[in-house]
Here is the input.
Amino acid sequence: MNELFKALSHPARREIISALDAGPMASGDIAAMFDMSWPTVTGHLNVLKDAGLVEAERQGSSIRYRLNMSAAEEAVSFLVGLMNTGASRPRKKPGLKRKPLA
Here is the structure.
């Protein structure tokens, strides 16, 4: 789960995921979306792949990437569960200690 949220922390990787939501893309097409070097884009794709958010498939001399929805659904499920848990309990203010009742 930590790798998944780390992967989602960078705006370029979130943009790649948004683009892949429309369907699989060749690595060259993904790289063309950005004003950064090919190795930098490849690094972002590897982080997404290591987190399980994208899958890569070689087609001839190119690599096509597609979104792995099950990993994205796992992250969303975790966040929804966290929000539901947090809504049902009162929030404590940091640094404040309660006096014991007599």
Notes: The mean pLDDT is 85. The domain at 2-81 is CATH 1.10.10.10 (Arc Repressor Mutant, subunit A). The chain has five helices and three strands. Helices lie at 2-8, 11-20, 27-32, 38-50, 69-87.
